[in-house]
Predict the structure.
Amino acid sequence: MLKLSKKIEYGIQALQYMANNSGNVISAKEISEQLNIPYDFLSKTLQILNKNGIIVSQQGIKGGYILARDPKSTTVAEIIKALEENAIIVDCLAEDEENCDRINVCTIKNPMNKLQEKINYLLNNTTIAEFSEV
Amino acid sequence: MLKLSKKIEYGIQALQYMANNSGNVISAKEISEQLNIPYDFLSKTLQILNKNGIIVSQQGIKGGYILARDPKSTTVAEIIKALEENAIIVDCLAEDEENCDRINVCTIKNPMNKLQEKINYLLNNTTIAEFSEV
DNA sequence: AAAAATCGGACTATTGTTATCCGAATTAAT
DNA sequence: ATTAATTCGGATAACAATAGTCCGATTTTT
Ligand code: FES
Ligand code: FES
């Protein structure tokens, strides 16, 4: 398994939708209906993206969200991080490496790290803008 | 999340161990003890790798496993497939694409596929041999 | 015959993901 | 002021996937 969560998938799709409607405040309801994403789940996702600076919210009636930045400068890596997830392929590459109870028997850390860095490069170099270009 | 399963992680580490002891038949018990991997779980993993041609088993006392091929020609992508898992980042890129109930509202298939292909390239070009070079 | 190993199926425990619910706060329009 | 539409935020439930365990059968060497 090497799958992105629905939170990330929906998040990216929602950001893509917002990028394609830039200038307008878009409500969670609109995105939910247009993209057939469960409303409550999407709301949570957008709230997290707002909290972490990827989008800006406007509360109250007529409220909704707008992209905080140029789609060209928002990377998939940043979105994943903003959604409070990560893209780490094996436990031992997590920040708190000392935490891994396999550290003493681990013989794959270095080679796995090479692979990880290449994946990071891809995620750091794919932006929301690329999702807008259909 | 973009994590490899323990089955894959243990599998790769076990193959790496076998590559470093090539020529010898290695038992699941030995690998389990040396690498501190749960025996039953590892056994299952090795049996699947055997069934799908990555390693060759020898039954009975003095039995165990040997790599079926040159470590240089066994890729991570092949290992994942042999373990009957996959490395597909979003559902809609699975083989049975028609199966995805979001196909009609999906606006991310093409861009996600580009990312997927780049990841596939990495997995197809990383071999067990690279895990042996410490 | 015994011992040490693979084989294979079933099962359980644990965790992680996905989805839902509900009440509170905010804001615009009436 | 009131109402309506929205975001906010915490709790919880339903579901799925992962990880780990157990046990008996089979194979093969000694
Ligand atoms: S498995 Fe934790 S250090 Fe590699
Ligand atoms: S989400 Fe299934 S086709 Fe894209």
About this structure: Chain B touches chain A at residues 1-5, 8-9, 12-13, 16-17, 34-36, 76, 80, 85-91, 102, 105-108, 110-111, 114-115, 118-119, 122, 126, 130-131, 133-134 (CB under 8 Å). Chain B has a mean pLDDT of 93.
